[in-house]
Amino acid sequence: MSNRRNWLKQIGLGAVGLGFCQFEAFANPSKEYLLPNFDKSPILLRSNENPYGPSPLARIAMTKSINNSNRYAWNIYPELITAIAKKNNVLDNNILLGAGSTEILDLVLQYSSLNKGNFIIAENTFDYWTSPSEKLGIKKIAVPLTKDKKHDLTAMLQAIDSDTKMIYICNPNNPTGTICDREKLVSFVKEATKKAIVFVDEAYIDFTKEQSLSDLVIDNKNLIITKTFSKMYGLAGARVGYAIANATTIDSLNILKSSPGLSISKVSTVAAIASLNDEKFIQEVYAKNEEAKKYTIDQLTQLNLTCIPSYSNFIYFSLENYKKDFFKQLELNNIIGTKIYEENGKWSRITIGTMKEMQQFIEAIK
Known about the structure:
seven-stranded mixed β-sheet, disordered N terminus
């Protein structure tokens, strides 16, 4: 019996998770949009996930659609594509769906490698998707960030050569949380796309008041933008992402997909559609993230730890002045963080959880 009980705890949601909480509470929580939790569950502050779970409307849609999971989602894909296009002020043929933005990242890497060459990327940035590059015959060129942990757009532009096929910009940047000045980024895109594809990853732009670059794709075949429902919308486990690009570019990317209409499950598709209609949830998540972020940065600063201003749901900070074993402190308090990203300055990143979780985090490292 104890083994079965432990197994039930591990799987959390799904059919068993619904058994731990009434459907109404799960689908429409009154105060906090929190997933079922257990006493021994670790505090997860490593993957920049939304700690409040999917929106109430998404939860209802997902639950209702489970019985139809024996059918493919072909018939509802167009509805999601139209909703995404409307949100981004583009047309349906400017959108390509993927199983999270990582599938889009993989796809663009494949597309860029068709004629071999190299691609340019910042260091440090989100680069897990680049590992297959050498096997695909495309070389990675890393350009250091500026001293204030921002993309060095001038240096990246200068790094372009005749073999460059793609330049990757994560904006806001992961793990540093910094953001490019929009005017400078637009200027960079216009110049760089004369020579190569510019791929802008806007996974975290919903945590800012900044304008997307989506309006530029209509007239620019070499600009590709990716967005995701994993972060702000709390659907990391559901795997829903998309590309925004010129219609011709979307067609070229689509050809590389073995099954263009099978990337996303029906449950995930309806969740994404519902999420786009739950503006109240998005506003609340934004406000809670800002509040918890400010608290955490203030507390870290009081501990004499340097923090980079964050335009995201995570914080990049230096452990250079920290006297204890930071990761041991997390382990002792059942908190999962990330790693050291830069040895020079001992820079690390922490995801912003709920206010309660961030208070526990601060107590753990004091």
